Amino acid sequence: MISVLRNPTYAKLFSAQIIALLGTGLLTVALGLLAFDIAAGDAGVIMGVAMSIKMIAYVAVAPITTALLARLPRKPVLIGADLIRAAVAAVLTSAPAHRSPR
């Protein structure tokens, strides 16, 4: 099973997938912490809406975007998408928390 990692192309793709999954997991945790920071009691509702938007993007927006970007070179498109995602994560982490008095 480990012998497939000797193929350099497969090893690169596999490591990229692992990094992407780690990034997705960390972003989900950060979103949960941000939801709790913004609306402690209603954090579950905020997370539900955020995850619903995420799933709608996966199911509805991704195929349309794929069709629109099919003729562009893949590597720059993927790098650009990663940079946009990183920028969104940076904005979310740097946004000041607006806590309501309790």
Note down, in words, how this protein is organized:
- With 102 residues, the chain is mostly helical.
- The protein has one domain (8-94).
- Helix content is 76%, strand content 0%.
- It is built from three helices and no strands.
- The protein has helices spanning 8-38, 43-68, 74-94.
- Helix 1 (8-38) packs antiparallel against helix 2.
- The longest helix is centred in the first third of the chain and has 31 residues, at 8-38.
- The protein is globular.
- It starts with 7 loop residues before the first helix and ends in an 8-residue tail after the last helix.
- The mean pLDDT is 84.
Summarize the structure.
By secondary structure, the chain is mainly alpha-helical.
Count of the separate structural domains: 1
Query: Based on helices, strands and strand pairing, what is the structural class?
Result: mainly alpha
Number of helices: 3
Proportion of residues in extended strands? under 5%
Helix content: over 70%
The helix-strand sequence is: HHH
Average pLDDT, all residues: 84
What's the N-to-C terminus distance? Answer: 55 Å
Number of strands: 0
How many strands, which pairing sense, and closed or not: the largest β-sheet?
Answer: none
Overall shape:
globular
pLDDT under 50 segments (min length 5)?
none
Q: Determine Rg (CA atoms, Å).
A: 18 Å
Transmembrane segments: 12-39, 45-70
Keywords: Cell membrane, Membrane, Transmembrane, Transmembrane helix, Transport
Membrane topology: Multi-pass membrane protein
Protein name: MFS family permease
